[in-house]
Amino acid sequence: MIGILETLGYVIVAGTVAQMALGLYGTWRRGYLERRSFAAEARLFERRVELSLRHAEAERDLAVNSWSGFRKLKVVRKVREAEDVHSLELVAHNGRPLPRYLPGQFLTFQFRLPDRSKPLVRCYSLSDAPSDGGRYRISVKKVPAPEGAACDPGIVSGYLNDVVREGDILDVRGPTGAFTGDPASDQPIVLIAGGIGITPLLSMLNAMCDGQTEREIRLFYGVRNRDQHAFAEHIAGLRRLYPTLHVVTCYSRPTEACVLGRDYDRPGRIDLALLRDTLPSTNYLFYLCGPAPMMESVAGGLRDWGVPSEDIRVEAFGAATAHRQPTERPAAEAKPGVEVRFDRSGKTLNWDGSAGSILALAESNGVALESGCRAGHCGTCIVAIKAGAVDYVAEPAVVPEPGTCLACMAVPRDRLILDA
């Protein structure tokens, strides 16, 4: 009997000790997890502060060290990214440092080609995260000139893809543009790219991932097929490294060699139905860059879905795609019959709105105006206003000085006299 009681006593004591041990372990584990969580949050906070400071430093660097006019940059590396797509890495020809830029900005290039009497000006987005290495990278798709276009966008893209070699010198204007992302923000973000429109969004994506982000990022990337799928391996690598990065790749014209689930995620194009099917809500910042029809359709669909206009940011690219952007701001409509006088040319024309812009009105009536990107980016078409005022069909990336206007994006508000 005594032995039984002793055994029961041992069991009770052992149970009490075990219970105390479990309680102590639970307390320790909760404290350990809380400390880990606090440490992780502290590291994330420190990283965001660091990124915010770097972002502010980049803005100051651009303001202080950017340059007016064109500067000589040398091509130090040229890489094929996909069919008819090459990346060019650039450094200063004189070896001096280049200012940091903001993710999503672009460079303006001036080309003097042998068969052209005038320089050609084009804008290309920077396609990598800003770095302290003093290098810029652009990625350019060779595009054939569209039939009936007023300019030849394919000439320069073909020149960069087929002719330019490592060691060549290019004339470049400094980084600019308002289509930028803040890597330090923690707001969930959706990046929507069509074709070579991936370039500014890839700059933002690389910058966010460079910050070891825990931010929710969703990338929708639409191309024709595997042959034109630029940066496929790079994006797949980011996808594996960052669990908060979600990627949906769409092929509009997959070939027999394209494997669903390996090369791409969805057949067809990016549209509102895909976004509604994939996104849990509309509480995101949306960045769009691609062909105009895609942007107009998707941006309009997002607004219809209830996304505030200020959360939809778009970047048009190329002379053929940027006549109007889907984020048009309301402009005072010029009344039919408003006079536009080109003073030096001696021509007075009536504005009825059909031309779309002052530049188009001038070109269709034999008035010579310089132009480049035709998207409000490069500033080549700036003309002095001698009387009157203008509005813009969309917010230009380059802000002209008072008393001037960007003819490619401007429409007359009232009777207008231009120094052209």
TrEMBL record:
Keyword Iron-sulfur: yes
Domain spans labelled 2Fe-2S ferredoxin-type: 336-420
Enzyme class: oxidoreductase
A GO molecular-function annotation: nitric oxide dioxygenase NAD(P)H activity
Spans traversing the lipid bilayer: 7-28
Domain FAD-binding FR-type, chain residue ranges per copy: 68-182
Alphabetical list of Pfam families matching this protein: FAD_binding_6, Fer2, NAD_binding_1
EC number from the UniProt entry: 1.14.12.17
Keyword GTP-binding attached: no
Cofactor(s) the protein requires to work: [2Fe-2S] cluster; heme b; FAD
Keywords linked to the UniProt accession: 2Fe-2S, FAD, Flavoprotein, Heme, Iron, Iron-sulfur, Membrane, Metal-binding, NAD, NADP, Oxidoreductase, Transmembrane, Transmembrane helix
InterPro entries: 2Fe-2S_ferredoxin-like_sf, 2Fe-2S_ferredoxin-type, 2Fe2S_fd_BS, Beta-grasp_dom_sf, Cbr1-like_FAD-bd_dom, FAD-bd_FR_type, Flavoprot_Pyr_Nucl_cyt_Rdtase, FNR_nucleotide-bd
Catalytic reaction(s) noted: 2 nitric oxide + NADPH + 2 O2 = 2 nitrate + NADP(+) + H(+); 2 nitric oxide + NADH + 2 O2 = 2 nitrate + NAD(+) + H(+)
CDD domains in alphabetical order: fer2, flavohem_like_fad_nad_binding
Sequence similarity: In the C-terminal section; belongs to the flavoprotein pyridine nucleotide cytochrome reductase family.
Name used for this protein in its record: nitric oxide dioxygenase
Organism per entry: Thalassobaculum litoreum DSM 18839
Source taxonomy: Bacteria, Pseudomonadati, Pseudomonadota, Alphaproteobacteria, Rhodospirillales
